[in-house]
């Protein structure tokens, strides 16, 4: 169900989403840099690689859930 129908509304909501993601990404990066003082470059690289590994794992789990029908059963579509 769409809650926003006008392109201007969608653009505004996307801007809020980008700000939210930027803040969360910045907080995560700062956390990793606090864990590794004096190694800001290594901490940033570790943070970036950890996000990518998370994407891979999440994508795999979503694929398994979709293939097994878990998503359809839990949403009431089947």
UniProtKB/TrEMBL annotation:
The keyword Transmembrane helix applies. The gene is yeiO_1. It is found in: Cell membrane. This is Sugar efflux transporter. GO terms for molecular function: carbohydrate:proton symporter activity. It is a multi-pass membrane protein. GO terms for cellular component: plasma membrane. Keywords: Cell membrane, Membrane, Sugar transport, Transmembrane, Transmembrane helix, Transport. Signal peptide: none annotated. Coiled coil: none annotated. GO terms for biological process: cellular response to glucose-phosphate stress; D-glucose transmembrane transport; lactose transport. The chain crosses the membrane at residues 12-33, 53-72. PANTHER family: SUGAR EFFLUX TRANSPORTER A-RELATED (PTHR23535:SF2).
């Amino acid at each position: 169900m769409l809650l926003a129908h006008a392109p201007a509304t969608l653009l505004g909501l996307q801007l809020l989403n980008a700000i939210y993601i930027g803040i969360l990404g910045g907080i995560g990066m700062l956390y990793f840099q606090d864990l590794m003082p004096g190694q800001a470059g290594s901490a940033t690289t570790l943070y970036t690689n950890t996000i990518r590994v998370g994407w891979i794992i999440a994508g795999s789990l979503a694929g398994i859930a979709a293939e097994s029908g878990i998503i359809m059963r839990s949403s009431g579509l089947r």
